[in-house]
Fold these 2 entries.
Entry 1:
Amino acid sequence: NQLQTIGIAAANTWGLFLLVLLLGYGLVEIPRSHWNGAKRGYLLMKTYFKAAKLMTEKADAEENLEDIMEEVRKVSESIKYNHPLRKCVDTILKKCPTEYQERMGRNMDDYEDFDERQNSYPSEKSLVKLHKQVIYSVQRHRRTQVQWQILLEQAFYLEDVAKNETSATRRFVHTFHSQEPENKIIQYFYTPTVEWYWECLLRPWFYRVLAVVLATFSVIVVWSECTFFSTKPVLSLFAVFIQLAEKTYNYIYIEMACFLTIFFLSICVYSTVFRIRVFNYYYLASHHQTDAYSLLFSGMLFCRLTPPLCLNFLGLTHMDATISHKNTQPTAYTSIMGSMRVLSFIADGFYIYYPMLVVILCIATYF
């Protein structure tokens, strides 16, 4: 009768394994990326490096697309309009970029018949393979083009900041103006003078302060992950904050503390998912350039990470009876997912001691 709980415990164990791996990276990388965000020279050099790397990928994508389109052209010319497989070729042509479709359309002869005895025609299986290659190559070509454009804009912006830092007029001057029309209200308040003070003076300091705050949160999380199993005395700082609020019945404070804790943990874990590249095949690309396979893979990963993230949070704050060893009212999470006490070797062993590995992962990421 506890089969459901055993299944949930197994899923959470696998999820917790992933969670600690991703959390260890995010706890270090998020504060560090904001600290480096204040270094203009570092950001510009990094953008140049990314541009050189993306240029190679872009050239490779263009070359691959040309090869695939040449193959499509040959197939389109060999399979005429009265051939049974012509509808399959038309489906493939619809997935090709417009300029290639027009080019192939000009070279077609509508009235030429086919002769099955003289010509060898591709099979339906080979057309399916070609269709898959067209979809992938077109999507990859479009993605690299969009990423290249974004990276160029980013490089021009950072170069503008570097030039304007020594400006005597203290007015921000753009080398290239944005193609998109700006909001009139933002344009009214965000004047070139305001933009100069924000970009050249205030923004670096804002990023540094934010990085220090995030680094403090990261240290608190690492400390709590290593000490949350201790109930007497209570060493987990998150549990200390919650228990202090419990004594004064300050419910708003409890809500805010819980929200900020889960929010920070979620950012550390989920932002790492956005950086993952599995064999350069599964990864999330910005500006709607992610393919269907990567979206499904990432969505599945998010679903697997959320329940163990909640379980880990309940452990950090001693709201889980398995950790606190108190007969308190069960949380909504426990009432739905069931008590993990059914599997004592997981509840009293893996759930408590495995999160300590986050220290090793944080050190490895830092170095």
Entry 2:
Amino acid sequence: VLYHLFEEFSEVGSVTVLDGFLGVISFFIVALGGVLVGAIYGFLAAFTSRFTSNTRVIEPLFVFVYSYMAYLSSEMFHLSGIMALIACGAVMRPYVEANISHKSHTTIKYFLKMWSSVSETLIFIFLGVATMEGPHSWNWIFVTATVILCLVARVIGVGGLTYVINKFRIVKLTTKDQFIIAYGGLRGAIAFSLGFLLNKSFKMREIFLTAIITVIFFTVFVQTHSSVSALLQMILHSHSMGQSLYKPLSYTILWCYLMTCYYSNSTRQTVGLVRAPGRSMGRLPSKQQMSSYISLVLLNRFNKKYVKKFLIAGERSKEPQLIAFYHKMEMKQAIQLVESGGGSKLPSAMPSTVSMQ
């Protein structure tokens, strides 16, 4: 969005304060407009997938077509195509996945993995060719400032957003997690593509491309390699944390329903702590946490009562979230056993969804 904005500013020549103000407004319109377009196509895809039970073979096609249409529609109206794709995928995930068959889900998953790898490979091949071909315009001050400002902006962005979401998370993102996210990212493939598309008559085009290529090489060869050991430590930490993840998750769900009933805005009532064997649940949640819990309960009720019935076909719309998650994990575990050659180790009678209910 900012790329197109500054591209238009460069063609105008003189930019007034009013132009800058209108540019800020257009930034939010373009970004939020892309989200809206993507959400609309996501709901259309979910509604369409309700009626594909007899023609399973076309289910992957619907997913690809609606996603691509979201991107094209946004670009046609000069909105953010990337934001449209993200919003479309976020809306399609819980509803379309419940409607399509497991074979269609597998087809979509591996087809997109393949094309993402192919696209990334082509971009970096193109990057290598552009690096060797040139022409380049090296400026130590501009290139160094670009690398430093990219790192600073990334740290500010990750730290600021993490500070906000940690207010609502039960399992907080630690300083180590934030460091890996901030330091281990920022490749710049999209920046390189946009810079390469600049008009060749643009006098700063060569120095822009040189700075972008330098940032990409710095983040690939310096940042990535130096953060591998810290990343491995984080992965080991996440595996050990998984065993205790059920405790805060179950307590959160319990607080959602208990505190929705017993909490009042005028006075914080002292509610007796629910204890596990020999353990306490700890302090009462804050007002901010309670408001998010109440919102979560109301949102889940609205989703189950209205949205899921409209977008999900059959009995899956009435399936409790825990049962649906168990059903998904059961299928995933069975596939992993078969792929690893452990199909003979499958138990004779796996617990069914009916018995779980």
